[in-house]
Input
Amino acid sequence: MSAVLLHFHDLAGRGVLITGGGTGIGAALTSAFAAQGARIAFIDIAVEESRALAKELSATSEHPVHFIEADLSDVFAAQAAVKEAAALLGRLDVLINNAARDDRQDLETVSEADWDGSLAVNLKPVFFTSQAAVPFMREQGGGAIVNFSSIAFMLNMGELPAYATAKAGILGLTKSLAGRLGPDNIRVNAILPGMIVTERQKRLWLTDASIAAMIERQCLKRMLVAEDLVGPTLFLASSASAAMTAQWIIVDGGIL
Ligand SMILES: NC(=O)c1ccc[n+]([C@@H]2O[C@H](COP(=O)([O-])OP(=O)(O)OC[C@H]3O[C@@H](n4cnc5c(N)ncnc54)[C@H](O)[C@@H]3O)[C@@H](O)[C@H]2O)c1
Output
């Protein structure tokens, strides 16, 4: 089903912040939330693509779509960006922690700086953006946080030690935040994508052969794309999942 056809009425007018919303899966999410009539801001470092997306969506959406340039590995910048988003949107109801970097690492050569750099993008901001968003969600009487993990940490992928550690850590963090924030009616869930074929993935890591091999492992015999994450994310952000927290959804076409 096309993402545009999905409609979660309660998302109209909500304040939604998406990290890494300028390209890839994040861009599909930004577009989909805009199509719901939500008020959107997204944080990214990909300036050119993000400006173009914000301009395009602002021209066709009910509310302006705000791009905030910030490096999420800088905690101060990340938290300042969350506060800026809440001010621009007038409210903050939904936080989608989607930004990541799946750099490959070699066991023999990975340095302390490489390790810290990966966790600084892939794990640390998930906590600190949430910490900054919570006061604004409390003002609304609740909210929803959706954290992007990955099935990669369960596939024994030897070239992703820090990324796999971060993505597994996100599940622990999701459950801890859910426990802490449930009394505030703030729900915290996670999504684990499988192999999602984006332009960046094709440019950096994927080949026709590796895509075919992954499809072979999937129950569903087709390529998964960014738009396949839209339905599950809208669902976890909306009141359709009002009684769900501390959970995760695997969107991998049936690999696991
Ligand atoms: N594509 C896949 O196959 C796949 C599979 C499993 C999980 N995931 C997860 O889904 C999410 C989205 O994946 P994607 O493939 O679209 O990722 P991507 O790398 O293409 O995009 C991530 C976005 O985050 C932004 N970003 C990166 N570092 C940043 C920083 N320091 N500060 C601000 N923004 C930053 C990038 O510019 C980009 O727009 C990620 O969490 C990823 O780990 C993706």
